[in-house]
Amino acid sequence: MSTKGNLELERLTGDASCCSSRPAAYPSSPSEWTFQHVTDVLERLVGQFDSNPLLAEPNQLRQRLEALDRIDAYLPYTPQAVLAAESIDPELYRRARTICDRFEALNCELYEAIRCEIQRGSRPDTLLQWVRPSVDIEDVNGSANDMGYDYLDELISGVFQFEEPDDRHILRDSEKAFYQPTPVRHIFRLMRLTELTATDVLVDLGSGLGHVPLLVSICTQARSIGIELEAAYIERAQQCAQRLNLNKRMFIQKDARVADLSLGTVFYLYTPFRGSILDAVLIRLKREAATRRIRICSYGPCTSVIAEESWLEAATAPEAHGIALFHSRP
Ligand SMILES: C[S@@+](CC[C@H](N)C(=O)[O-])C[C@H]1O[C@@H](n2cnc3c(N)ncnc32)[C@H](O)[C@@H]1O
């Protein structure tokens, strides 16, 4: 993920751990970098990316994102103290910025092509072509097994173009998780595991900006519902769905403890809450399971709690770092 994407995510989630672009050969903290380090590395990167015409090819998204990540790691993080005394050669700075602008414009063309495909309602082949290799690799390796973000998250964030939610008023609560999206490859893993059909309704309990219901609506025949406590997130999810002409989805601003769950066939929880809130929602899901067979998918620490429920049967290994699937017992 490019640094720009990381910062966006970091600001949304308050989590600095998702920034992964520190170059290994240099001191780990930007404040320890010297002016000479920054100049040397930028010069090397600019030379390397300028002389590689392949990077302009449409199928080089991943490489471009990586290149942006590496350049961005030096431009915004250049230590202010060093810059105050000496400044980067303006020509080097200009060349680095030009490369970033060119790569970002090429990526935007790809995001726009994917948006057009989605808006037409056709099969999102351009999107799927980027997703398959990542999800296939994880199938071969056994599971999609870590919490980090990758190029797919950057791609989806470019396609969805969420406007910044006004989340200043959102209160912290010890049992309520703050917003953080499920890494996109895990969402595709969820869709692969559940094989959603036109008769399914996936309900994301604590849907945030709506990545899961949106992608389910784009990539499957199923309907999807996002239930989210925070109006600011619901508003952004609705806007995105409208821009993309997605009809098989619904976003409802409600506490999951009191929302109507009667339409759901598959429920998804990316650890939206814990403690008494999770207990209350599990009691409600158990009641739903008494009326019909349901499936539950989970991700993160809530999986170990869900795995303890005797009315559920694990269909995958219930691990926190990948998507877990449970079936309600008959
Ligand atoms: C970790 S985020 C997951 C977002 C989304 N499901 C995804 O995977 O991309 C958890 C979300 O649950 C929401 N949430 C927390 N408590 C809730 C509740 N009682 N009812 C509905 N949503 C809740 C939070 O506001 C946050 O947006």
UniProtKB/TrEMBL annotation:
It comes from the Bacteria. Pfam families: DOT1 (PF08123). Signal peptide: none annotated. GO terms for molecular function: histone H3K79 methyltransferase activity. Residues 186-251 form the DOT1 domain. This is Histone methylation protein DOT1.
